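Q: Given only this backbone (299 positions), what sequence would you predict?
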């Protein structure tokens, strides 16, 4: 009998007691947590996430995307928005608290060198993977990556927007609000919101993406690949934009999870495969999928 095929996620997920190093509160009950988790920090890739305990009395963990990694210090950064008692408890933990942290989990984004114009779209708590990916691409000096990050939120952003100093052709002149961290990395960014926030595109982030794509010539558009994370309607809209302009897209799905290691199948979604439709687990088969596989073009 032949040996069973190796599972791609085996021996890559670890569990460690992470120390909460710092907590920063933002409007809209949003919090950025910095955790010392050296094992996870050494292995994390853009698009991967952690399954984090809220406190010792709550057995159910919460899946949270990784926003930044500092492998040298062994620290990771996550963003959470309070939804329910568990995340409220987690958000209230003081610095120095030890939390059981499992990760990094999932297959992340794969950027292709032949498409250096990476268009990164993040919505709400789907912003962190885009920041992580932009950070990783900007640090790769071996290729000419030209990422553009578009972030959308219907509540105040979990950072203080500031006018961008980086010109982005194809973006409307009045859309100047940017994420300071990305500005410091030299990565152009723009913000979208329907909440009337100054300097932001007054609409959905996918509408801003379509406007930018429409301004590219065919040769430039052939260098574009879209990466997105956010609520399901936004990801479906991303898939439609990608199909409209004929560019590839990868989407990171947001789903409720119980185990996050593929055992319960509670996060399974329908995905198109060469062999026909199949149910895939967002936690270990994803969370990143080809956009057209999850949101096929309308018949």
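A: Predicted residues:
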């Amino acid at each position: 009998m032949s040996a069973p095929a190796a599972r791609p996620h085996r021996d890559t997920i670890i569990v460690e007691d992470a120390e909460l190093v710092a907590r920063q509160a933002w409007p809209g009950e949003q919090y950025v947590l910095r955790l010392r988790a050296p094992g996870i920090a050494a292995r994390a890739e853009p698009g991967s996430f952690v399954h984090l305990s809220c406190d010792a009395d709550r057995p159910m963990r919460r899946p949270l995307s990784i926003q930044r990694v500092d492998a040298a210090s062994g620290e990771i950064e996550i963003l959470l928005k309070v939804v329910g008692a568990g995340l409220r408890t987690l958000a209230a933990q003081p610095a120095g608290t030890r939390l059981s942290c499992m990760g990094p989990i999932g297959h992340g984004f794969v950027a292709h060198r032949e498409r250096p114009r990476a268009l990164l779209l993040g919505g709400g708590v789907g912003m962190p993977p885009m920041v992580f990916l932009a950070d990783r691409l900007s640090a790769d000096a071996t290729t000419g990556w030209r990422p553009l990050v578009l972030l959308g939120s219907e509540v105040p952003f979990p950072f203080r927007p500031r006018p961008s100093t980086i010109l982005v052709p194809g973006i409307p002149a009045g859309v100047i609000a940017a994420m300071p961290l990305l500005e410091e990395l030299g990565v152009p960014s723009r913000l979208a919101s329907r909440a009337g926030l100054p300097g932001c595109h007054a609409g959905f982030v996918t509408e801003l993406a379509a406007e930018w794509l429409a301004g590219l010539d065919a040769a430039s558009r052939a260098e574009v690949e879209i990466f997105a994370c956010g609520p399901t309607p936004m990801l479906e809209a991303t898939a439609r934009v990608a199909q409209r302009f004929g560019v590839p897209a990868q989407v990171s799905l947001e789903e409720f999870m119980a185990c996050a290691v593929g055992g319960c199948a509670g996060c399974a979604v329908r995905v198109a495969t060469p062999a026909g439709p199949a149910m895939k687990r967002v936690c270990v088969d994803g969370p990143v999928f080809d956009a057209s596989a999850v949101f096929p073009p309308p018949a």
